[in-house]
Amino acid sequence: MPELPEVETVRRGLSPAMEGVVIERADVNRPDLRWPFPDQMAERLSGQRVDRLRRRSKYILADLDSGETLLIHLGMSGRMTVSGDPLGQFVHNHPAPEKHDHVVFHMANGARITFNDPRRFGAMDLLPTDTAHEHKLLSVLGPEPLGNDFHEQHLIDAFRSKNTPVKSALLDQRIVAGLGNIYVCEALYRGGVSPRRKAGQISEQRVAALVPIIRQVLEEAIRAGGSSLRDFRQADGELGYFQHSFDVYGREDEPCRTEGCDAKVKRITQSGRSSFYCAQCQR
User: Fold this and answer.
1) How far apart are alpha carbons 27 and 38 in whole angstroms?
2) Known catalytic residue: 112?
3) CA 63 to CA 254: how far, in whole Å?
4) Is 58 a catalytic residue?
5) What pLDDT tens digit does each residue of the chain (283 aa) get?
């Protein structure tokens, strides 16, 4: 499932074609994805200008001049691609419609944004912009890892007396929003922290050191266009490239990349997910 860097990459790709532009027509080609679409979604979107395109955790939020916000979740296989952009930032002509093109936005600038989702685990909803933070999917989220509210003291306080593994704690969206399996594995490797360590047993100094490391990993991934493991594509249809920079994720039995370390990357299962780490470098 796309994590924060992938969603932010898509948001940045959509922004030139959508921000400040009117949705001339929205085609909604089925009644639901993971959940039913809101009533009259096509009518409520058509004719509205996208005032702002933002991201909260793994959700894209399009604030409309109608006072509503379109919430978009890509799910496991959802893709949003742009075609026909008159600004010249996208070279693709409008493609022929595909079977799983469930929602299509025809923009006033000539661009077309297509939401394609074969597995239909994605979601869309419409909610009042001024109370968007109260939505059931957004109200439970912790601070953004790239924002000012995610700082050393916040993570120290969140980990204090916590008896769960640090990997599980960082995946808890109430502690920090948007992190997923890939980037937690990579951040723990860089921080020299074993994913098996109990969060509450890690020294405050080591916990504090994870904050800039998490930010660095995410920023590098965003610059690389995210990680393409299965279905992820950028808004222009291209693959992300950060998977070529993985230090541990997906590298089971391969040599550790730390200079002077002769160990191999291990894989364990935690809460049904694979954790990759170097048992020699991460304690």
Assistant:
1) 14
2) no
3) 45
4) yes
5) 678 988 998 898 899 899 999 999 999 999 999 999 999 999 999 999 999 999 999 999 999 999 999 999 999 888 898 888 655 655 556 777 778 999 999 999 999 999 999 999 999 999 999 999 999 999 999 999 999 999 999 999 999 989 999 999 999 999 999 999 999 999 999 999 999 999 999 999 999 999 999 999 999 888 877 554 444 344 454 544 445 578 999 999 999 999 999 999 999 999 889 999 999 999 9
Which of 3, 6, 8, 68 is catalytic? The answer is 3
273 is catalytic: yes
Catalytic-labelled residue, pool 162, 197, 215, 273:
273
Residue 67's Cα: distance from chain center in Å?
25
Q: Helix and strand tally (H, E) in the chain?
A: 6, 10
| Residue 43 is a catalytic residue | no
Catalytic residue among 11, 55, 58, 112: 58
Instruction: Of 52, 53, 48, give the one whose Cα is nearest residue 22.
Output: 48
The predicted model scores a pTM of: 0.88
